[in-house]
Amino acid sequence: MTEPSGRRERKKAATRQKIADTALRLFMERGYEAVGIRDVAAEADVAVTTVFAHFASKEALVFERDQDFEQRLTRAVTDRPPHEPLIPALRREVQALVRHCTAEGGAPVRRMIEGSAALREYEESMSLRHAQALAVALTADPHLSRSETACRATARFAIDAYALACRADDPEATVDEVFRMIEAAWEAAAP
């Protein structure tokens, strides 16, 4: 996540992180369904309105790095050196994101998400939004010369690679396998 520069921005970021950390701790201790926004606000010692100033919904508390995730994926496209091929750059970023989701302590959070219909639904809507943002970045790159359909499919497959790998016994092998397919499809879509 980008480091906030000014004092006010740092304070807002610290409050946001405190709320997210408190919420996750409460969800893990009591169960996601048993904890309300008021519980999180009280435990974090902030007003309910402060929670909603930082997070649009209870589900967003679980996925607090959502915006950072999307930015990292789009930057893998937009910030790569001009000579660097697209698919390896995307694969590298997805692998880094997968390492984060499968790091120590990630399994209980994944189980919590899988056990909640509301969280699974929120995660799916997030994935669609991330795929759309990534597709826009791919389509906008004049050096890629692929159709909008190819860009949209590639974006969706990259997001799905992440989701599959986070649930896999061997996350790195899963990313590699899916990206071999993505690369073959990308090359087949070349004009």
List the uncertain runs.
none
Overall average residue pLDDT: 92
Helical/strand content category:
mainly alpha
How many strand segments? Answer: 0
Keyword list:
mainly alpha
Task: Summarize this structure briefly.
With 191 residues, the chain is mostly helical.
How would you describe this structure to a colleague?
- By secondary structure, the chain is mainly alpha-helical.
- It has helices spanning 7-30, 37-44, 48-54, 58-62, 66-78, 86-101, 106-114, 117-140, 148-167, 171-188.
- Helix 1 (7-30) crosses helix 2 (37-44), helix 5 (66-78) packs parallel to helix 8 (117-140) and helix 6 (86-101) runs antiparallel to helix 10.
- The mean pLDDT is 92.
Structural topology:
Layout: H1 7-30, H2 37-44, H3 48-54, H4 58-62, H5 66-78, H6 86-101, H7 106-114, H8 117-140, H9 148-167, H10 171-188
Helix pairs in contact: 1-2, 5-6, 5-8, 6-9, 6-10, 8-9, 9-10
